[in-house]
Write a structure and sequence with these properties.
The complex is a heterodimer of chains A (109) and B (119). With 109 residues, chain A is an all-beta fold. Chain A is built from no helices and 11 strands. In chain A, strands 2, 4, 5, 9, 10 and 11 form a 6-stranded mixed beta sheet that branches. Chain A is globular. Chain B has 119 residues and is mainly beta. Chain B has 1 helix and 11 strands; from the N terminus they run E-E-E-E-E-E-E-E-E-H-E-E. The chains are: A mainly beta (109), B mainly beta (119). Chains A and B meet through strand 4, strand 5, strand 9 and strand 10 of A and strand 5 and strand 10 of B.
Chain lengths: 109, 119
C-alpha cells in the first residue's frame, strides 16, 4: 500500500463547478499536511497547509480527518487556471516527506 | 520572498561526464532537499540537509553526491550517470525539518528545477 494515496483522475469539470479531492495516508505519526499544485513541466507550488481545524483560502478549503487518516481539498467556482495536478503531502517528526501520486484536474470552458 | 533558485535550467550530459546542480535560497531556511521527478510521477525525496548536515539519504546511488557549502547553498554532484537518471531534479527548502523543533507546519518551497538528460 502506498504511504499517501490519491485518485489520479483526471477530473474533468466545467468552469464554475465545485470539485473535491481526497487523499489518504497510512502513517499515523504524520503531523504536517499540505496541498501543492503542479503545472505541466513546472515545479510544485504550495497551495495551502492543512490544519486540524480545517482552513480556507478564498475558493479553496482544506480539511484533515486524523481518525480516518485522510485529507481533502475543495475547490469552489473552478477557473480554467485551476487546471493542474494537485499533490497532497504528509510529513512530520523525523520521517521523510511523502508526496501522493497526484490528481489531475482539467477545467473545461 | 519565497524564492529558491536553481541552475542550470537544462543539462545534457554523457555517461562519463561530471557535472553539478546548484540551488540557493535566501529565506533563512535551515532545511534543504533534493528531489527527483520522472514524468507523470510525484517528486521522490533523495536527500535532506538540516543545519548544513546530511540528515536523510534515501538510499540514493553514490553517483549522486550532495554537498551543502553553507546554509543558503545546496549542490548535487553528478558522475557516471545512467540514461535512467534523466529526470527533473528539484531543490526545496523549509524553515526547519523536524516538526517538533519548528512547531509549525514545515512548508517546503521549490525551485524551478533542472531538467537533466543523460545520453
Amino acid at each position: 500500500r502506498k504511504e499517501v494515496e490519491q485518485d489520479p483522475g483526471p477530473f474533468n469539470v466545467p468552469e464554475g463547478a465545485t470539485v473535491a479531492f481526497n487523499c489518504t495516508y497510512s502513517n499515523s505519526a504524520s503531523q504536517s499536511f499540505f496541498w501543492y499544485r503542479q503545472d505541466c513541466r513546472k515545479e510544485p507550488k504550495l497551495l495551502m497547509s492543512v490544519y486540524s481545524s480545517g482552513n480556507e483560502d478564498g475558493r479553496f478549503t482544506a480539511q484533515l480527518n486524523r481518525a480516518s487518516q485522510y485529507i481533502s481539498l475543495l475547490i469552489r467556482d473552478s477557473k480554467l487556471s485551476d487546471s493542474a495536478t494537485y499533490l497532497c503531502v504528509a510529513s512530520g517528526g523525523y520521517q521523510k516527506v511523502t508526496f501522493g501520486t497526484g490528481t489531475k484536474l482539467q477545467v473545461i470552458p | 520572498d519565497t524564492e529558491v533558485t536553481q541552475t542550470p535550467k537544462h543539462l545534457v550530459m554523457g555517461m562519463t561526464n561530471k557535472k553539478s546542480l546548484k540551488c540557493e535560497q535566501h529565506m533563512g531556511h535551515r532545511a534543504m532537499y533534493w528531489y527527483k521527478q520522472k514524468a507523470k510521477k510525484p517528486p521522490e525525496l533523495m536527500f535532506v540537509y538540516s543545519y548544513e548536515k546530511l540528515s536523510i539519504n534515501e538510499s540514493v546511488p553514490s553517483r549522486f553526491s550532495p554537498e551543502c557549502p553553507n546554509s543558503s547553498l545546496l549542490n548535487l554532484h553528478l558522475h557516471a550517470l545512467q540514461p535512467e537518471d534523466s529526470a527533473l531534479y528539484l531543490c526545496a527548502s523549509s524553515q526547519d525539518w523536524v516538526f517538533e523543533l519548528a512547531g509549525v507546519p514545515l512548508e517546503q518551497y521549490f525551485g524551478p528545477g533542472t531538467r537533466l538528460t543523460v545520453t
